[in-house]
Amino acid sequence: MLEHTKIYFYYLYGDNNCFLCGDSLEDLSHIWLCPEVIRLTQAYLQSTIVTIQEFINNSSSHSITQHEILSLPIWDLSSSDIQVIFIDILRGFISHSLSKLLEQFLSSSQVEALLKDLSN
Ligand SMILES: [Zn+2]
Asked: What domain of life (predicted)?
């Protein structure tokens, strides 16, 4: 759709390079392949892991390692039709396996508070 819009409204869009990396022509596939998007997504993933770990370690008598959190199959940045992947978490979806992990350490109101924290 964007590609068609660019063709018909070339005077508006022109041949703008990606505003994040500046290297390539910006098209739909570049949105997911842009090295800067991948870097930012990985940084956000790392920040999410740290947030979960600190919340559990500060809010309960349990402690959890980043390795335990990373053992969930949901952190894969590649596409999948089966798993709720990290990109879906960015969209606000919470996977069953993440909920189950959190429920081992936190009360339901704490899980709710953490998930609300993660979605902000
Ligand atoms: Zn880019």
From this structure: Eukaryota
